[in-house]
Design a protein that fits this description.
This protein has 368 residues and is mainly alpha-helical. It has a domain at 209-353. It has 13 helices and no strands. It has helices at 2-40, 44-67, 72-111, 130-142, 144-150, 152-188, 190-205, 207-246, 251-263, 269-282, 287-301, 304-311, 320-358. Helix 2 (44-67) packs across helix 3 (72-111) and helix 8 (207-246) runs antiparallel to helix 9 (251-263).
């Protein structure tokens, strides 16, 4: 038994050294990955948004570069400037209007120049909240300073929150601009980036399946960006500009509401129809002018009915309900970025599961 035990002991020592070596390497790799994440964590949200912009705009970038003789850098620069002109300028205009409205409201409350109209008598008959709402509304109409004084701690906190929101508008616009510029850099090196992503998918899922999953991921990101967020953003800008032209107060705030409603797949008519009622009830416009404002608000409020069939789900082999459910569930889980992550993950899971079902080896065997 002694001659047999010596090789076993030597094998165990070699195995122990090999396992220890693997454990040390894995620990060092995990520590390096954690340190890299700590260093890059502040830039991850910006990089994700830039990647989403780059994937969405890359087909347009390829067309522009083809007309410029293959100069990818110049095409990325022109597309970035175009994005700034098309999106950043109108968003800045609407957000500036929102900030001005919030500041004007706070100043009017502080200087006691805000006039609250009397509540309709029908408000008191509303169930549950009608009586309390009518009482508070009446007090605001009759003696607003006393109501403000009685609610001073709460109103002070609301005012600080509103001013903080106004201050964050500039930061959000700068982040959007930085993401757009970084997306231009990504698009300038789009070919090498696409090859790297394709190699990663092929390494994980095989050559043929990896290429299919890479195309599906790209198409899903573009479908969500164009068909959900893109449609909502375009409609919010159109509605906001129509509200500004019609002279509706708080146009920036209503545009932000339309953006949220559009992402949640709720019609923008919830905002534009009351605005049309306000235009006709104000009485300061002529009939022709009011009709023009009404047409603008109606067209902008129903623009998603035209944009969604054109932009949602183009180039995606996954059924649209899967994309939409993934986008809405991802938004509920992780905000707007979660919308892209949820839709992409659900689309990949659908593709993998359907491929697994189709490759069932027992499906070709006829029943007895």
């Amino acid at each position: 038994m002694t001659p047999l035990s010596t090789p076993d002991a030597e094998f165990e020592r070699r195995l122990a050294r090999r396992l220890l070596d693997v454990l040390i390497r894995a620990t060092l790799l995990i520590a390096m990955a954690l340190l890299c994440y700590r260093v890059l964590a502040p830039f991850v949200p910006l990089a994700i948004w830039a990647l989403i912009f780059a994937v969405t705009l890359y087909p347009l970038h390829v067309r522009i570069a083809a007309h410029l003789g293959g100069r990818s850098g110049l095409a990325a620069t022109l597309l970035t400037l175009l994005g700034i002109a098309v999106f950043v300028v109108p968003i800045a205009l609407l957000m500036s209007s929102l900030g001005d409205s919030i500041r004007a409201l706070i100043e009017a409350v502080q200087q006691n120049t805000l006039q609250i109209p009397a509540p309709p008598e029908s408000v008191a008959a509303w169930p549950l909240i009608g009586g309390k709402l009518y009482a508070v509304w009446s007090q605001a109409h009759n003696d607003l300073p006393a109501l403000v004084q009685s609610q001073q701690p709460k109103l002070g906190e609301i005012a600080r929150t509103a001013l903080g929101f106004v201050a964050s508008i500039g930061g959000g616009l700068l982040a959007f601009l930085a993401a757009l510029v970084l997306a231009g850099i990504f698009m300038a090196f789009g070919e090498s980036g696409a090859r790297g992503c394709l190699s990663l998918f092929q390494r994980l899922a095989g050559e043929q399946r990896g290429a299919s999953l890479a195309r599906l991921s790209t198409a899903t990101i573009r479908a969500v960006a164009q068909g959900v967020v893109g449609v909502a953003l375009i409609q919010a800008i159109l509605v906001g500009l129509a509200l500004l032209i019609a002279g509706v107060p708080w146009a920036g705030a209503f545009a932000a509401i339309v953006l949220v409603l559009g992402i949640a797949q709720v019609p923008a008519l919830i905002v534009t129809l009351p605005a049309i009622v306000w235009v006709w009830s104000r009485g300061g416009n002529g009939t022709v002018e009011a009709l023009i404002y009404t047409v603008l608000l109606l067209v902008s409020g129903m623009a998603d009915n035209v944009l969604k069939p054109l932009m949602l789900g183009r180039g995606v082999d996954v059924p649209m309900p899967v994309i939409l459910v993934g986008a809405l569930g991802g938004m509920a889980w992780g905000g707007i970025v979660g919308m892209f992550v949820g839709a992409t993950l659900l689309a990949l899971a659908w593709e993998v599961s359907t491929g697994w079902v189709d490759e069932n080896p027992d499906a070709a065997i006829p029943p007895p």
